[in-house]
Design a protein that fits this description.
about 170 residues, globular, alpha+beta, 2 helices, 7-stranded antiparallel beta sheet
Length: about 170
């Protein structure tokens, strides 16, 4: 028993530095280059994924989603679980089919962690090089990638533009 204790004492004393534990061990950035995890949290109440939001897709009948939608002068507002406004839906000429879904709430996140309120630089960090189009009549500059259109708005004073709307369209 004496020999075992002496052996353990010698082994512990051989270290030339402080002991390392998971809390003190130096770690390279484990998520370097992995931007798909940013800002996506299990607590996020709403997610855009696979070309749909709250099971709504462009081309789907409006009547299927009447409980989520509230008509408001030619468009339908999308209501969340707390009756909060998440965005709006535009219909085709018949008014019966969803033409596009416009998300305007920061409570909604894409699978890449993109949400309303992120800056143009943060968008670029998540999806790669982007070139926003010329401003439209509403002053928004948009970028489309993977069936989602990110609409940016920013002041002319050089501060970064921010995402104000994410659009799902066919």
């Amino acid at each position: 028993m004496y020999r075992l204790a002496l052996l353990l004492l010698v082994l512990c004393a051989c270290s030339d530095g402080p002991p390392t534990t998971p809390e003190t061990r130096p770690v390279e950035n484990p998520n370097a280059g992995n931007t798909a995890i940013y800002d996506v949290d299990a607590d996020d109440p709403y997610e855009i994924g696979d070309g749909a939001f709250l099971d709504m897709r462009p081309g789907a009948p409006v009547a299927t989603f009447r409980k989520l939608l509230k008509e408001d002068g030619g468009r339908y507002n999308i209501r969340g679980r707390r009756r909060d406004r998440l965005g709006y839906v535009l219909t085709d000429a018949s008014g019966e089919t969803i033409a596009s879904i416009h998300v305007t709430s920061p409570d909604v996140v894409t699978q890449n962690g993109i949400r309303v309120g992120l800056t143009q630089d943060e968008l670029r960090e998540r999806i790669g090089p982007i070139t926003p189009g010329a401003p439209g009549p509403d002053g928004l500059r948009c970028v489309t990638q993977d069936a989602l259109t990110y609409c940016l708005q920013g002041p002319a004073d050089g501060t970064p533009a921010t995402i104000v709307e994410i659009v799902l369209q066919p």
